[in-house]
UniProtKB/TrEMBL annotation:
Source species, domain of life: Bacteria
InterPro entries, per database record: HipA_2 (IPR046748)
Annotated source species: Streptomyces cinnamoneus (Streptoverticillium cinnamoneum)
Protein's UniProt name: HipA-like kinase domain-containing protein
HipA-like kinase domain residues: 14-240
Entries under Pfam families matching the protein: HipA_2
Length: 274
């Protein structure tokens, strides 16, 4: 189970992405980035954060530690922003926290280099979870103490918004052409050979067990949280076996040119030897 703490102070909102997470302090003296159950995106975003974050870490990718955070909305009473007030009010009880990495920088592909092996592992993992939020527009990667850290897995596993179609979704390909690491020559084949065999029922079951029951109850078509956990396990297990063969990187045709800015295209073309 994830460690549980209680928020003691709302420090400030983070306005970079869309979901308005906040920085909070907690009773363990830790500082966390808090994702709210009351946010418009709903609790499935938090389920995705837990499953994908825990899975990434188990595969050796760097993800800040996750925690369950209890919130009494009263701690936001002095907060002047209406939007933040409403969010806190709607989020009493259990929320998700991610260890705040002080001084971390947003990943900038011009300022930071990674190698083909690491790029390959990240791209393969994003293909597995069908992450549409690691593009050059919106990298959701941080650089901290000189290393890459993965954050923000809320917009992944699209199939959990439509379970009847999940089996089909598991077979879908992944287009990594706009992936922020596409220009680092990601060695997807090696990553697949290394990581796919590690995705087992046991590992996925452990990861799914970290999702609080509260976020899994009342899903239509499922007989309780454990049945829903098994569905997450099944789709990811099935996808892990073959997704490595269905990833395209930087293969844009002339009639569908990349929308990427010039510097991304120069890098892509340069690395591809064109
Ligand atoms: N653990 C963290 N440590 C430091 N900064 C973070 C951390 N998590 C998020 N941030 C910062 O907050 C921003 C928003 O967080 P993110 O998880 O991407 O939420 P969203 O995009 O849904 O608003 C990030 O782009 C990043 O700048
Ligand atoms: Mg984000």
């Amino acid at each position: 189970m994830l460690p549980e703490v209680t928020a003691t102070r709302y420090v400030t909102p983070l306005r970079e992405g869309g979901s308005l997470p906040g920085i909070v302090e907690a009773d363990d003296l830790g500082t966390y980035v808090m994702k709210f159950t009351g946010a418009g995106q709903g609790r499935k975003t938090l389920v995705a954060e837990v499953i994908c974050g825990q899975l990434a870490r188990r595969l050796g990718l760097r993800v800040p530690e996750l925690a369950r955070i209890q919130l009494d909305p009263v701690i936001g009473r002095g907060e002047p922003d209406q939007e933040v007030q409403a969010l806190l009010k709607a989020s009493g009880g259990l929320n998700l926290g991610m260890d705040f990495l002080p001084g971390a920088l947003g990943f900038d592909p011009l300022a930071f280099e990674t190698d083909a092996a690491e790029a390959g592992r990240v791209v393969w993992f994003d293909a597995l979870i069908n992450n549409v939020d690691r593009s050059w527009r919106n990298p959701n990667l941080l650089v901290w103490h000189g290393r890459l850290w993965l954050i923000d897995h809320g917009a992944t596993m699209i199939w959990h918004h439509n379970w009847p179609s999940a089996a089909t979704a598991a077979g879908k390909a992944y287009d990594a052409s706009d992936h922020v690491l596409a220009s680092f020559d990601p060695d997807v084949a090696t990553a697949a050979a290394e990581l796919a065999p590690r995705i087992t029922t046991e590992l996925l079951t452990e990861v799914a067990a970290d999702v609080p029951d509260e976020w899994l109850v009342d899903e239509p078509g499922f007989d309780g949280p454990d049945a829903l956990r098994r569905a997450y396990v099944e789709v990811l297990l099935e996808r892990a076996a073959t997704i490595g063969d269905r990833i395209t990187v930087g293969e844009r045709s002339a009639d569908k040119p990349s929308q990427a800015p010039e510097w991304v295209r120069v890098r892509l073309n340069g690395k591809a030897g064109k």
